[in-house]
Amino acid sequence: MQIIPVIDLKGGFVVLAAGGDRSRYQPVHHTSSICNNSEITDVVTSFLTLYPFQTFYIADLDAIDGKGNHNKVIDGLLNQYPNIEFWVDTGNSHQALSKATRPRNCKPVIGTESQRLPVSLKTADLILSLDFKHNHALGHPRWLESPGLWPRTVVVMTLDLVGSNKGPDFEKLNKLCYAHPDKQIVAAGGVRDINDLTRLKAIGIAAVLLASALHNGNIDTAILKKF
Questions:
Q1: Family assignment (predicted)?
Q2: Residue 41: CATH number of its domain
Q3: Burial letters for 50-88: b for 16+ Cβ neighbours within 10 Å, e otherwise?
């Protein structure tokens, strides 16, 4: 099972998510045990000191909310680490992404909370994020009802559990893994420790997105080496 660190960008800094309420997100170094500032390059360096991660997840929260973007700093990171793959969610539509050129190490993420009508992504070289909040699917309901539209890799993003220390939504994740064995299901939201990771691996989760548990030290280098 792959572990993928998360970089949430807001107002020029990496921030730490808190229950999906973006107004409460603060620069990550205020509470992180591994970072002494919240610049994106320094946060990535701190993560790579923990473990040689091959993939990172970046969410440009300003772009997703229509309040600007971090295109320049993201492009700089892609150039700095050409051998690392970056999954990037900027809130763009599939139509906009299909017309854009991107570096080979950038894989776009389509989040259902940012989309209008569903389109087929089955053969697209990107990742779908099925977004949930307070047990409700965000975006058009057909995204959840039409797995034939999904690409191979699907993130299950439970926004209200992000940074909550409440644990993942095991029931939802287990159902999706069982119902869609042909998909690579990625868990996002609520992971606290090695026990959560072990349980997610047992139900067939292909990868896990992590931020809080890396910053607070609950999941350290020794644990990462086990997965």
A1: Belongs to the HisA/HisF family.
A2: 3.20.20.70
A3: bbebebbbbbbbbbbeeeebbeebbeebbeebeebbbbb
